[in-house]
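Worked example

This section walks through a single chain of length 312. The input is the sequence exactly as stored; nothing has been trimmed or padded.
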Amino acid sequence: MEIIRSLKRFEPLPSSVLTIGSYDGIHRGHHEILSAVVNHAHARSVPSVLVTFDPHPRHILDPNADKLSLIMSMDQKMGIVESLGIDLVYVINFTEAFSKTTAQDFLDQSVVPFFNPKYLIIGYDHHFGNQREGSPQFLDEYCMHHSIGLEIIQPVSDDGHSISSSRIRQLIQDGFVRRANFELGSVFGFIATVIHGAGRGKELNFPTANVVPVEKNQLMPKPGVYFTRGRIIGLQAYGMCNFGTRPTFDEHELVLEIHFFHDELDNLYGKEIRVEFLERIRDEKKFPSPEELKSQLQKDKLRCLELQGKYE
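Given that input, the structure is written out below as tokens.
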């Protein structure tokens, strides 16, 4: 898969099948769209193209609001896009000036002259261009005028709810990571750097790796204990993590610390690992003493080891 961020030296394609979108957290609904793009492109023997944006448009359009937490980093998204078979991704630098581009000008200046789409596929709720004027209705007229085929992909539902990035974000924030993983079609997780911690886990005979996400706007799950999987230096290791403030020790700063069930993982400081949240075990709780916390951690570990068989 080829990824481009500028069209200055790009040789226009004679034809393509194309989709447009921010794709914040590529979920099963997005899979439907991207798979349709790939299938139609194969049928026509032309390249499949995704046009997307970085940073997320909300980070530019709502500068005074809280930053939108990202379900996936751009690198994660590109990995999934490539696995689905897309040939070419054009990543547009989304700026305040670009946000004022009309839908018509965007297609006329940045899409059609370079990618010559013969077939365009978008999600049912997708909008683009200044004031979100590039609606499915707008595209219907535009594509008809330019002899471009258009397909609108309807929502994918789960348990009576339409799958969407906003719904998945809320599921993760509420701790329902297993349901979020199902709707994503992949496991929620991120790349993180191992840092030095306070050594609380080691004192309890549960040594942990304290980590911070590489993506500064990374979405985090609801505080609590989770069954997790880590991928590092060629190894896959299961474990359990606590995301919270460690109330038993009267601390207040949110910390993510992981205890791996793998003896060979040692001296991880400064290394990057992928942390994946498989299932939620329990809420974070203040215990009367470190010994009672240790007893609960032993129960948590047994529960995680029981779950591990489902994922191996």
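What to look for: The domain at 2-155 is CATH 3.40.50.620 (Rossmann fold).
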